[in-house]
Each structure stands twice: as structure tokens, then as C-alpha cells.
Amino acid sequence: MSGETRYTIGDLAQRTGLSVKTIRYYADSGIAPPTDRSPAGYRRYGPDAVARLELVRTLRDLGVDLATILRVVDCEVPLAEVAAAHAEALAVQIRLLGLRRAVLLVAARRGSGAAEVDDLHRLAQLTAREREHLVGDFLDIVFEGADDQPTYPGVIVSMTPQLPDEPTTEQVEAWLELAELCQDPTFRASMRRLARQHAADHDVPGLPRPDAVAVVRDAVAPALAVNLDPTGPGADAVVAAVTSRYASLQGRPDDADLRQRLLDRLTVANDPRRDRYLDLLSVINGWSAGDAVAPAVAWFLQALHARMPEPAH
Questions:
Q1: Most confident by average pLDDT, 52-66, 83-97, 156-170, 178-192
Q2: For the domain with range 9-77, which CATH number is right: 1.10.3720.10, 3.40.190.10, 2.60.40.3500, 1.10.1660.10?
Q3: Residues of the chain with CATH 1.10.1660.10
Q4: pLDDT, mean of residues 188-208
Q5: What is the spatial distance between Cα 199 and Cα 90, in angstroms, rounded to a whole number?
Q6: Rounded to an integer, what distance in angstroms lies between the CA atom of residue 292 and that of residue 280?
Q7: Under 8 Å CB-to-CB from 311, ≥6 apart: which residues?
Q8: How far out from the chain centre does Cα 134 lie?
């Protein structure tokens, strides 16, 4: 072994890119001890020191602590086991960093103050169970008393967000906004009124059928596509088609009372936050976005108002 190559600490520094001070520290820590010393007393290292130090540099760059590195280079623990453990730890760190980034992006976009940033950070840190409770509380309020509606369990499932274990920044941002909507008392009340009216529209014999919003959405889409004036004569046919269809579904005559009923329902439904909730839900759950109903409802409300009789004085 006397003919084996020996390296000075300066040689190792050139080969590994580590500083002399760092190599000396690793040597004193037992990670890369010198093989022997020169006649003048200087430390000398064998070829295995180069491999050890390169491994040490790589593991340190990956965030592995020195105590664990010493166990790896001394073969006390398999490198694969250490790599797996640190990969999992890094995955957790990456997720946390993603959550923090999303909070900061939302805060920067809104110009948030300290209190709002605290609220956003709290919502981002909720566990899956806590998120489920927050949304469940919102949906319980919206659909309270609607247990007799056979379609509602499916509706509730379709309105429930499922944030993935490793969400994208966009999904975290969507969750933050949706969670705020769920806690907004005015939005809760609006959605509850809409659910009550939806139930009333279905409180007729026969199979489940489209409600007022669905009827309007389907009939008004062509008018929106061509920018038809809702107050002009060209909109007469659209209004007649909607009121006739709604009257047929409700088993009622197409008269002033039915049009007032339709107006009342659509006034409640004319809340763009409903569309926003569904858009955010699609982002969180990875669904394709649906068509917004607010533009159709707003168009038809304007058209119907223009054709309602003036109130008697």
C-alpha cells in the first residue's frame, strides 16, 4: 500500500471544490479522516477521501445533517434509506413553501393588511378534516331542511372541494378564496335562498326537472352569443320561450303571476359569487370549468323587467 496515491489537503480542495477549512472540519469530525501524515507532519489522504468528500458535499447540498452523513460513510445506515427519508422531508417542505407562496401572492394581489394575511395563512394551514368541517358547515346551512329532495345529496357532493395532497399554487389560491366565500354570511344567505327556491321549483309531481336558472341559461345562450338587446323587440321570442317553458314545467299558466314568480327566483339567483364558487371548485378539483350562468340571468332579468306591467299607483 506504500505506493498508493496520497493527497494533501490542498489537493483535495482542488479536486472537490471544498475549502481547506471545510475539509479539515470534516476530517476532525471523522467523516473523511486522513490516511496518514507526511514526514513533516502534514495530513495526507488516500483516494477514498476524494469519493467520501464528494459524497459529503452532495448530501450537504441536499440538506442531510453531518451526523447522518457520518453514519452513511461509515456504512452504519444504507444511503438509499437516508435518501428516501430526506426525499419525504423535502416533499413536506416543498408543500409548505407552496402554501406560503400562495398566501403571499394572494396578499400581494389584494394589498392585504396584517389581519387578512393572518386569516389567509390560517386557512392555508387547515388540515383535510378542518377543511371538510369548514365546507360542511357552509353546505349544511345552504341545504338545511332539504333532505327530502332526492337530487340534493348528489348536488352537495358536486359542491364539495377536494384539495389534493400536493396542490398547485393555483389550487391553493382557489381554496383560500373559496374558504372565504364559505364563511361570508351574505353569501351563505344568498345560496340558502337559492337552494330554497330550487327546492320549490322541484316541488311538483314527476321526475326532477330544470329549475328557473337552467331554463334561462339554455334559452338565453344564443341571444348572448349575438349580443341581442334584451330590451329590444328581438328579445320578445326569447322571453316568450322561457316563460312558456317554465310555465309548462311548473304546471301553471303563463300569466303575470308566473312571470313575477320567475322574476323573484332570478333576482335571488343573480349573484355572480355563485359562478365564482363553481369556478374555484373546478380549479380545486381539477374539473373543466362550466358555463357561467350570471350573464344569462342578468340579461333575462333586464328583458323581463322591460316587459312587466308598470305597478299601479
A1: 178-192
A2: 1.10.1660.10
A3: 9-77
A4: 77
A5: 49
A6: 12
A7: none
A8: 15
